[in-house]
Amino acid sequence: MRDRYTMGNKHSSAELLLAIREGSIEAFNELYNRYVPLVMHITLHCVQDRMEAEEICHDIFLEVLRKSEQYDDSRGSLDAWIAVIARSRSMDYMRKKKRRAAVVSLEPLTIEDAKETTATPETITMGKLDRELLQEAIGELPLTQRNAIYAAYFQEKTQNEMATDWKVPLGTVKSWVRYGIGNLKKQLEKRGWHHLEERKDSYDQRS
Q1: According to CATH, what is the number of the domain 13-104?
Q2: 139 CB contacts (<8 Å, ≥6 apart)?
């Protein structure tokens, strides 16, 4: 290792990667210092937030470290290879951020929220279930499905009302309710309860 990498010398990209593959921390630090301006420029351009860009930058260099053996200098420069990873990781981050924003915009409801709503035939029926059993089952659902189930059964909202309140397409709400009921049924059946279908039929008639 010392023969291939000596601190203080100017190393080529190939030499740096070879040393990194063999575990040289010094080589990785040199690579980082050399390419961090390029990576930060790309990530900051994509996410428009310095703190987020710095977090992504860290992940990008970890990916470079993990994938160092995949680099082939016959197919392009190291600059281009790192730039591709930086753009890809930044775009992945933005897509995930948009998905998170869509979910966060739907306020999570809790069992306590359900208790505070006006009593209806649906809430009375659901209230007959063991509270802990229901909480465990609903807790296993994705957040969007969980919100849809609460809105439908505890707040007596129609799917059109949910779509309007949450500013999402009606088809999206229908999917959340449908999959939410299906997943809730599976979770309750695992816990020894087998009567969700009649609750589903009752809600379908109101929708």
Answers
A1: 1.10.1740.10
A2: 146
pTM of the model: 0.48
Dist. CA 6–CA 155, nearest whole Å? 68
Q: For residues 52 and 57, what is the distance between their CA atoms, to the nearest angstrom? A: 8
Which among 94, 40, 29 has a CA at the least distance from the CA of 65? Answer: 29
Q: Residue 197: its pLDDT value, please?
A: 47
Sequence ranges of the chain with CATH classification 1.10.1740.10: 13-104
Contact at 8 Å (CB) between 154 and 123?
Answer: yes
Do 97 and 91 touch, CB atoms closer than 8 A?
Answer: no
Q: What pLDDT is attached to residue 152?
A: 81
For the chain, list residues with pLDDT below 70: 1-9, 99-132, 191-207
Task: Give φ, ψ of 201 to 5 degrees.
Answer: -60, -40
Residues 6+ apart with CB under 8 A from 132: none
111-206: CATH topology is: Arc Repressor Mutant, subunit A (1.10.10)
